[in-house]
Amino acid sequence: MNRWSPPSGGLAAFGLYSLLAIALTWPLVIGLGSDVPGDLGDSLLNMWILGWGAEHVPRLLVGSIGWSDFWNANIFHPDPLALALSEHLFGQVLQILPIYWLTGNIILCYNLLFISSFALSAFGTYLLVRDLTGDKRAAFIAGLVYGFLPYRIASVPHLQVISSQWMPLALYGFNRFVTDDPSLPRRSSREFWRAKSGALIGGTASLVMQNWSCGYYLLYFAPFVPLFVVHRMWTLGKLKDLRIWASLAGGAVATLALTLPFLFPYQQVQQLFGIERPFGEIVQFSANVLSYVTASENLDLWGTTLRFYPHGEGETFLGFVPWLLALIALSSLIWHRQENDDLRAAVPPWQRYLSAFLLLVVVTQLIGVLSVVLFGGFELGPISARTPQRLLAQFAIAVALLLAIAQRARDVIRSPITLALVGTILAMWLSLGPLPATGNTRISDFGLYGLLYQYVPGFNGVRVPARYAMIAGLFLAILAGYGAQRLMSAVRFLPSAFCLLPLSALILIEGAALPLEINRTWSQNETMPPPRVYANNALGHRSLGEGVPPIYARVKALPAGTAITEFPFGDAAWEIRYVYYAAAHWKPITNGYSGSFPPRYKERVARMQLIAKDPDGAWQSLKDSGSTHVVIHRNAFANHADADTVESWLKSHGAAEIERLPDGDLLLTLQP
């Protein structure tokens, strides 16, 4: 028996999750090859990244290009390593390769990734919770919670954030690996490995795919994996099993070996461009305590009422139904009676009294820690809860003493419910960033994230601690699964559908945003870009797709060694379009849009704003960029006089017109 294989009923659950994903992203399926979910912002950047990867990964695998060539993408010319200025999406590229090479339609590929992330996240959680609880109904509810979190709607433009399906699949694989099965042979290490290798390989591969799919989760999810695995080994009495430790060490080495090559280019970019996220920027993109009651405005049920603290990346609402189910799970754990009354009676009275006292200390210290994190603490006469470090130390000491003397406490700590609760609280705390706040009020100078930012390499290069909310959502889904199991066990006299259907409906209603917003465009300084983008179909012998601006067919025909600059220059709404359509020709462009910007690009932007005041300085900046040709999108300028100024400036410095298209686009050469 291969322990990685899905349990019975898994394919039916996946099919249902897939249908729900299509329904809850409606009407995207109607325009699968032409419409873009959310806005035409970061999604276009991600499509360009996917297109670059789909074109170049096969060449990389066969050795026709080198590793550095793969990272030297065709934006921000002449600066190198442009791909490392944002997510590389290597995991998603591997997923779309067959579809891309059949169709060349990157919008289709993007939308398939987008819809499947809902279904696969739900299915991975289903497998994990079914493995933990042995209950398909509870697992189905947990899958709905994680697969259709309200937080996903707030993250629609960020494919890397919603591509979180590999996290539950990794935990599922590792859980299957450390869990015994009576059918597995135990006679030798070779037989042990043959029986369990599928689970370990599956878990490791899923973790690697998650690392390749989102750099944030590579950093953020990493500590939760050993926390989960070690807790499960402790619960199952496997901490002394050297075969498991050795196998897990092998999986860790493989994960590191497959992940490290993707980290070095980011390290080089940080050193080359001096990129480091300012502390204030990280605080700005941290979650707020009120973020967890702030929903995306697009949600049908809560979008207009739960708007307590909307700000960038701060809509981390996870739903109310999962929390109610989590409370049921926790209450059942706390009030569960010890089954063996004889053993309970054998406990000496002093041990029971001391255990009760220590439990009281644990609860009060935990309340104190949470009050400091959430509200800044409190003072009641001689009782003071203001210092989180002291409260955490007292909490840890009380927990250690309680575990040492009370079997019941050890049983509670060993429960997966406790593990899921710790994971949820820890992820939410980290999401609050280095300076936790409630609204506009700072509540603590002790943010757990601040320690990571200060001491762990890589954390000073990412800026959105709020994205820990997805990890909190995963552990909350596990809690909700246990709560659903307890609830359905309590009403076992009723058919399963009487609980399953209403719970499912409530969870889906909380996360619904129908119809899903598509093709929303925005502008910055110049005119509003067109309300749609078009699939490039720029693959091999294929011509450009219908609707792609004709200027890019002309650019595609330019000789090798060409480098393009497009005007208006520096307007983010248009720069994103230039980046997207750079996949139509793959010529280097000096324009760009990404998670970070090279200093020389920023300097060019500043120079190009001074064409009228300092035309020679602007011209020198353009020549220094290595541009050989210029595209002027005349209709993109808010003022046609500005387009005339740019055209006159170029021609006064020797630029020659090649072609003027009927739609107003103009191609010029800077070479004699």
What does this structure look like?
The chain is mainly alpha-helical and 672 residues long. It is 56% helix and 4% strand. It contains 29 helices and eight strands. The strands form three sheets. A four-stranded mixed sheet has the order 5-6-8-7. Strand 3 (437-438) and strand 4 form a beta hairpin. The chain is elongated, with a radius of gyration of 28 Å. The N and C termini lie far apart (72 Å). The relative contact order is 0.12.
Task: Describe the structure using short key phrases.
mainly alpha; two-stranded antiparallel sheet
Side by side, the strands of the main sheet go: 5-6-8-7
Radius of gyration: 28 Å
pLDDT averaged over residues: 89
Biggest pleated sheet: 4 strands, mixed
Oligomer: single chain
